[in-house]
Each structure stands twice: as structure tokens, then as C-alpha cells.
TrEMBL record:
HAMAP family: Ac_ald_DH_ac. Residues 7-120 form the Semialdehyde dehydrogenase NAD-binding domain. This is Acetaldehyde dehydrogenase. It comes from the Bacteria. It catalyses: acetaldehyde + NAD(+) + CoA = acetyl-CoA + NADH + H(+). Its EC number is 1.2.1.10. NAD(+) binds at S13, G14, N15, I16, S161, A162, G163, P164, G165, T166, R167, Q168, N169, N274. Belongs to the acetaldehyde dehydrogenase family. Keywords: Aromatic hydrocarbons catabolism, NAD, Oxidoreductase. It comes from Lentibacillus persicus. NCBIfam families: ac_ald_DH_ac, PRK08300.1.
């Protein structure tokens, strides 16, 4: 007898939404019923049809016409679109997992603040950004050992992996990621930068994290490395291709960490780890919400 699943739908048929669809198709807790877009000829909607997922091409109106399709709705459009869709989804009584930088709901990074006894009661959670999901865990690992005065991150992704939605969200990316580095990562101040690298062949997603601590932490190097290693392992629990690009460096009051993310190649090739880091995090979050819905614990 198969385990009962919770129905979910994805709004946004671009790179992120389509990659997310493949991950949800493998879930034993979530049943992805629909991929919703606005272009009937999009690759995402075509892939949905090929995989037995309902393809809706009139946007959120299509979900309003068939609200029974989902209890959980993933937003994978743009920050601007989610600001419009969020109140509609709230009125529909849907649990929302937002993969845009809109930050309507609280920030959620599974390896850091996924508290299973709290998250099911939230109406809308925000997955920050791909760069945030890749770097916030490392900043938090350091702040768990020493006070962090400043964190600066640079996320570099292949330009081929950045669809229209990602490009529209560049400004929001920097603001939302920086805010989450403080709120979730524990930094007092922060800055986030994203670069779209046109290299051919495409590069893997690479993230450089520079952290300035409140004091010299060379005497705490062993504890910092141990904390970083533990966090790396935690992220690898749901993103297999997450790894150090170089050995972390502790020098005086500065800690430098470099990580890269190799994707599993669900929609785009493996260089698109920026898709994996956020869609895998969103899948993990949705499964926790689904478990609580099945138990009748959510409100």
C-alpha cells in the first residue's frame, strides 16, 4: 500500500519551476499535480505533459479555477509576481513555499532553521535565493562559534542557467540575500553580490564567503572548521553536490570559505547547481509541511 501524499502545484514554468517539478516527482510525501505558466509553448509545460503533470497556461487564474489541485503551492516566478499572488494564495487557504526573493514570509534555510514543530504553522515561507541557500549555512556555522561583524558573499552562476525570472530578480537577490545573512546567518552586517558568468563551457555554481569576526579567531580555528564541516554535511543531506571548492581559511579576524554546487541534471545540465540548491531546499521544506498536514497538525 503506497503512502498517502499531499497535493502540490508549482507556479512558474521556467528553469527553477521545471527543475523543482522533477524533484517533486521523486518525493514520497508530495504529489505534484500541476505546473502553471503563461506560455503554452514553454519547455516547462511541455515537460509537465510528458511526465503526467497537468500543464496550466493561464497563470494563477488556472489554479483559482481548480483549487482542489493543491494544498501546497510553490511560487517560482519573480519577486514582483509573488507580491501579487501571495494575498490570492492566502485567501485560497494554501500553504506557500516561495522560491522568489519577495520575502513575504520568513526566511527558511533547511540546514539552519527548519524547525519541524514551527514551520507547519506558517502560511508562507521564503527560500531566500540560490546564493542565500548556498552561503547562509556557512555564515551560521561560523557565527555559532564566534560573533560575526560582517559577512560578504559572492555567488557566481552560469549565465546559461539564469532564466528570465532570475534575471528580473537580480536587484531583489542582493537585498534579500543580505538581509537573510543577518537574520538567519547571524551576521551583524552583510553584503551579497551575484555574477552571471558567460564562460563556455559553463561553470558550476561557485560561492565565496568572507566573514569578519569581532575578534581574532585563530585560536578557535579547530572549532570553526568543525562547525563548518558539520554544516556542510547537513546541507549535503538534501543537496548531494554541495562541497568545498577550497579548504576554509582562518586568518586573524577573517574566515574565508568557498563552496560549489554541482546539480543532478534534472532539467538543465549539472552545471546548474544554482537550481538544485534552492529547489532541493524547497522540496525538503514541502515534505516537512506535508508530514504535518497528513497528521492534521497544521492550522
Amino acid at each position: 500500500m503506497s503512502q498517502k501524499k499531499i497535493k502540490c502545484a508549482i507556479i512558474g514554468s521556467g528553469n527553477i519551476g521545471t527543475d523543482l517539478m522533477y524533484k517533486l516527482l521523486r518525493s514520497d510525501k508530495l504529489d505534484v499535480t500541476a505546473l502553471i505558466g503563461i506560455d503554452p509553448e514553454s519547455k516547462g509545460l511541455q515537460r509537465a505533459k510528458e511526465n503526467g503533470v497537468k500543464a496550466i497556461d493561464n497563470g494563477i487564474d488556472g489554479l483559482k479555477e481548480q483549487p482542489e489541485l493543491a494544498d501546497i503551492v510553490y511560487e517560482a516566478t519573480s519577486a514582483k509576481a509573488h507580491l501579487t499572488n501571495a494575498p490570492i494564495l492566502k485567501d485560497m487557504g494554501k500553504k506557500v513555499i516561495d522560491l522568489t526573493p519577495a520575502a513575504v514570509g520568513p526566511f527558511l534555510v533547511p540546514s539552519v532553521n527548519l524547525k519541524e514543530d514551527e514551520i507547519p504553522y506558517l502560511e508562507n515561507v521564503n527560500m531566500v535565493t540560490c546564493g542565500g541557500q548556498a552561503t547562509i549555512p556557512m555564515v551560521k556555522a561560523i557565527s555559532d562559534v564566534a560573533a560575526v561583524d560582517y559577512a560578504e558573499i559572492v555567488a557566481s552562476i552560469s549565465s546559461k542557467s539564469a532564466g528570465p525570472g532570475t534575471r528580473q530578480n537580480i536587484d531583489e537577490f542582493t537585498v534579500t540575500t543580505a538581509e537573510a545573512l543577518c537574520e538567519v546567518g547571524g551576521a551583524k552586517d552583510s553584503k551579497a553580490i551575484i555574477t552571471l558568468n558567460p564562460a563556455d563551457p559553463p561553470i558550476l555554481m561557485r560561492n565565496t564567503i568572507h566573514v569578519k569576526t569581532a575578534e581574532n579567531v585563530e585560536d578557535k580555528e579547530e572549532d570553526i572548521i568543525k562547525s563548518l564541516d558539520a554544516m556542510l554535511h547537513a546541507v549535503q543531506g538534501y543537496v548531494k553536490g554541495y562541497r568545498y571548492k577550497a579548504v576554509p581559511v582562518v586568518k586573524g579576524d577573517v574566515v574565508t570559505v568557498s563552496v560549489e554546487v554541482e546539480g543532478v541534471g534534472d532539467f538543465l545540465p549539472k552545471y546548474a547547481g544554482n537550481l538544485d540548491i534552492i529547489t532541493a531546499a524547497a522540496t525538503k521544506t514541502g515534505e516537512v509541511i506535508a508530514e504535518s498536514l497528513l497528521k492534521g497538525e497544521t492550522v
